[in-house]
Every structure is written in structure tokens, then in C-alpha cells.
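REVIEWER CHECKLIST
Item 1: Sequence provided? yes
Item 2: Single chain? yes
Item 3: Sequence as submitted:
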Amino acid sequence: LRSQREFLEARRLPVRKVGLNWGRAGMTDEEILTKLRGARQVTFFTRDAAFYQRGLCHPAYCLVVVAAPAEQLASYATRLLRHRGLRTHALRVAKVVRLQPSGIVYWVRNSNVESFEVWR
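Item 4: Structure as written out by the authors:
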């Protein structure tokens, strides 16, 4: 939503939207993943639950699935970016994360264990 993008931009967070100023409209999931692999220091936020897969962990990016209404995406994003264990790109990279009301669930590259942290 535009309001969510404006909320993040007002907090001086760099925001790119698929089809608007990153990639092209109508990109497939595989095209998005290919473009992410070539990007630098990207944390990709989406509401598409299909991106929450252990096999999508990659050392070039962090995937974040927000399991909340679209109107709350920006608040969940800022909470993640301020979280003690995930506040820098180095701490987020090679993870696939799901943000939900009860906390943060994530996979780490080369790990067979799904981790969970409550919101702080």
C-alpha cells in the first residue's frame, strides 16, 4: 500500500517496490529471486507466504514474509529492523523470516531447525 511505503520513507528507510522502481510489474517469484541474488544488501519484504521456505535462504539477501494485514506491513518491518538480533543486514542475511503477531519465526541457511523469537 502507498501509505505503508510512505510511512517507511518518512523514517528514512530505503524502499523499492516491484514494478515501480525495482524490477518490472508481473515478475514471477523465480525472476524476483534471481534479481535478489544479484543485488547487494537486500531485505525483501512480502506478504506472499510462498516465499517462506527453508530452501530459499541465500547469502545474498534476506526474505521476510509478513503474516499480517497489509495495513500493518510497515509497523512489522520497522519492528524487525529494530530487533536486537536482526537490526543489521549482517544479522539478517541468509535467513527466511516470517513476521507474525506472536513473534518472529525464521530459517537460517544450512540449518535444519526453524527458530522462533518473541517480540521485544
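Item 5: Key structural point noted by reviewer: Helices lie at 2-10, 29-37, 73-82, 89-92.
Item 6: Recommendation: ____
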